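Repro:
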Amino acid sequence: MSMLTPLIVAVFAIGYLCITLEDGLKVNKAAIALLMCVTCWVLFMFGAEEYIPLFHAEAFAQAGESVHRFVTSHILREHLGEVAETLFFLIGAMTVVEIIDTNGGFNFVRDALDTRSKRLLMWKMAFMTFFLSATLDNLTTTIVMIMVLRKLVFDRNDRLIYASLIVIAANAGGAFSPIGDVTTIMLWIKGTVSTAGVIRELFLPSLVAMVVPVFIMQYQIKGQLSAFAQTETEEIISHYQFCSFERKSIFALGVGGLLFVPVFHSFTHLPPFMGMLLVLGVLWTLTELFYRRKKHKDSTMKQRVTSILRKIDMTTILFFLGILLAVATLQETGVLRSFGQWLNEVSNKNHFLVTGVIGCASAVVDNVPLVAGCMGMYEIAPMGDFARDGIFWQLLAYCAGVGGSMLIIGSAAGVVAMGLEKIPFGWYMKKITWIAAVGYFSGIATYYVIRVVLGF
């Protein structure tokens, strides 16, 4: 092991700690991730003569020691290519969802949730969030559902409970879909899980992780809801420039396109981001054709794709870029592989224990670097638990996605809900954490019965 390895690990650990303490430090986590990424790769460059022969012996022998820095640049470009696949997929998905939302495509959600019963609303909202999250993503679904929640529930205490339920349902729904959560997207693009495999075997555990908390939380609310004003609904609808048919067309094409991406990948074997860019291109073209028919074109500029692209959260994209490339240095130094071997030895190769702990850790720290680290620890095997759709990879997808619900800061969905509804950290930990944990472990138990006991 190079003498620079402990220093690289220390830089990563300090950076990770600063990301976790983002609110206290008042420094955006994207800035920290970028600094951490560049620092780790600079240190790797200085130790390249020792690192490159470990995993790139052929390239090192052909290039020679005098040009080891050239080989390092080549290795970095390879990692950048892998990371770019995930980033372009996310950019495309975020833009498609923003187009649907900006042009009123999600108006149907509010209509579908129309009820006066608080408990019935809870069940409706849970299932709507669960399935929307699998189609869109858990972060976007949380934002959409909380915007709808504000129009339906006016009592502050009730709304905190509903918002917490949205977080749990969104994270559970995102875990069983290849496009429902950033971590699942990463695993799917890497090839560790397949579309059919992750849906078939994680749907029921994810559903249990959502249904169990709803069953418990329904007893925390009682009574009826007050009806919302019809004039308010009309004002909201009049905000959009498209007619009902055009809004429904955008919604159908956008959501249908997102569902089509895994099909496109299966038939063409092209990277998933190509399918996402295809959907974006088609939806963009359709909206431009709709805009050509409008008489008052100036009033529609804010809803056109060229304007929507400026609203994409590039801070999140840069954070993913920095953290994933920083994790790549730990992979290239052999740290992740050694740590993975140690975990196997300590747990006696109990993957339920390892992934279960990772899921609990994802409630405290960001699940993206956790999953990225696990992907660097282990190779995809031809058969066994580490094979494609093996127990380890599917459990990792479930645990990293659902485990974040146990704390309000444990997932992107939780953080955005915390910001939108001002959910107190202590209140969530006291009232919701144990409920989310019961759902989380119930889902793991369900998966254990399916895969180990029944042998499916």
